[in-house]
Structures are given as C-alpha cells and as structure tokens.
C-alpha cells in the first residue's frame, strides 16, 4: 500500500484509497450532551414539548444522520452500516446522547457515530428552542472504537 493520505501528488485533497485495507468488523461509540434548565428538562421527561416526543424524534434523526454521513462530511467514505443505536437519557441534569455504529468494511465508523450524536443533539435543541434558546450542546467526543489496523480505543 502506498500509504493512506488525504492528499494527492499535487497536494490537493482527495478521498483516501482504502481498497487494500482488510475488511474487518468495526464499531464506534460517541457521546454528547444537551444542557438546559431544569424546567426545560422536565418538559422532555413529561413528553409535553409542543413539537412532540423529543427523545424519539432525536433518536430517529441520529440514526438517519449516521446513514448519511458520507453526504455531510467531505472525503468520508460511504459505508454499509450494519447497526446504528442512538440512546438519549433525560434522567440526569441534561439530555445525554450516545450513538453506537457498526459495520464490516475497510474503514471505521467513528464519523458516523459522531455525526449521529451531533444531529440527535441538534434535534433536541430544535424541538425545544421555543422554550429555551440558551441550551448548550457540549462534550461531543468519541468514547470507543474497535476494529481495523489501529485496534481498540477507549476514552477515559
């Protein structure tokens, strides 16, 4: 293999050629949170948001986003995703978002997991912005990755 790079011989951006990489099972998990007031969080818990079930809609948006990551992130490979799970938890002091994505392929699904968390969090914001505009989407990060040449990663 000539080396994985996002630059061609002229120094221009290109999609990395992964054709010589081994096909392996790859999994990634990302997390983030939407911070809001206790009053807004109670609307989520009670299911009384005017736009509907915040957690259900955000879960679906995150799943759909993971499947469309290659359309959103330049130079990202389209992948045959075999599983996307997006979980939202409003039992604490914020809405916690976690997405796990799995594929069997030649490149990882870190971007898909991160995209799912971002879009799910943005959907929570969108559904509640009429109630509270100063919510904060924070702490979006990769927490786990397994498969491929680089092996396993687990965040602290």
Automatic annotation (TrEMBL):
It is an enzyme of class 4 (lyase). Coiled coil: none annotated. Substrate binds at residues 75-77, 111-112. One of its GO terms (molecular function) is cyclic pyranopterin monophosphate synthase activity. Residues 15-148 form the Molybdopterin cofactor biosynthesis C (MoaC) domain. Keywords: Lyase, Molybdenum cofactor biosynthesis. Pathway: Cofactor biosynthesis; molybdopterin biosynthesis. It catalyses: (8S)-3',8-cyclo-7,8-dihydroguanosine 5'-triphosphate = cyclic pyranopterin phosphate + diphosphate. The active site is at 126. SUPFAM superfamilies: Molybdenum cofactor biosynthesis protein C, MoaC (SSF55040). One of its GO terms (biological process) is Mo-molybdopterin cofactor biosynthetic process. It comes from the Bacteria. Its EC number is 4.6.1.17. Belongs to the MoaC family. Homohexamer; trimer of dimers. Catalyzes the conversion of (8S)-3',8-cyclo-7,8-dihydroguanosine 5'-triphosphate to cyclic pyranopterin monophosphate (cPMP). PANTHER family: CYCLIC PYRANOPTERIN MONOPHOSPHATE SYNTHASE, MOLYBDOPTERIN COFACTOR SYNTHESIS PROTEIN A. This is Cyclic pyranopterin monophosphate synthase. It comes from Pontivivens ytuae.
